[in-house]
Specification:
With 176 residues, this protein is mostly helical. The chain has seven helices and no strands. Helix 1 (2-24) crosses helix 5 (118-145), helix 2 (30-59) runs antiparallel to helix 3 (61-80) and helix 2 (30-59) runs antiparallel to helix 7 (163-175).
Length: 176
């Protein structure tokens, strides 16, 4: 269930930053902006797992989780300091005339799920994130119980597995 929730949040975030980036940068800077976002994402996926493994070895899992939560809070703080504000679109009025967060989410989901490009992107992201979360959970149990690997080694394995993402981010602008 947690994997499903993480998958949904990741899909929402991917849609949100993909929709917000064109507002932040000029059209001719869009490929470069996407490249920089993916490069940063890839670098975090390469550096994060060994760092997490090291923190688990040095401080224990609870402290590593607390540090991870702190990193999310810090990341949220950086998002708050984005100076450029996107003008809010005029929302559709609900039947009862009151707008709630649930109505807004429903309206957003309706838009995404009826859009010919966003629907397959959202579905792909949801299924992929859900499947990857399940594989990673089973993989972790396997490498710990069957192979006897420790947190530091597991972090290095995840890091090496993500090098392809960094390479793809580095050539995305050229390919585009």
């Amino acid at each position: 269930m947690v994997a499903f929730a993480v998958g949904i949040c990741t899909v929402f975030f991917d849609i949100a930053y993909g929709a917000y980036l064109p507002f932040l940068v000029k059209r001719e800077q869009l490929v470069e902006g996407n490249t920089k976002l993916e490069f940063t994402n890839s670098a975090a996926r390469i550096g994060g797992p060994p760092l997490a493994g090291g923190l688990i070895v040095l401080l224990g899992a609870p402290f590593a989780v607390a540090i991870n939560a702190l990193s999310y809070a810090l990341s949220s703080l950086f998002v708050v300091f984005i100076r450029k504000r996107e003008p809010l679109p005029e929302p559709d009025k609900p039947e009862n005339g009151k707008s709630t967060i649930f109505e807004d989410v429903k309206q957003g989901l309706r838009y995404v799920l009826t859009h010919p490009l966003l629907r397959p992107t959202a579905i792909f992201g949801l299924v992929t994130n859900f499947a990857l979360a399940m594989v990673e959970a089973v993989f972790l149990v396997y490498v710990v119980r069957s192979l006897g690997l420790e947190a530091g080694a597991i972090g290095i394995i995840f890091s090496i597995g993500n090098v392809g993402l960094l390479a793809a981010a580095a050539v995305a602008g050229t390919i585009a």
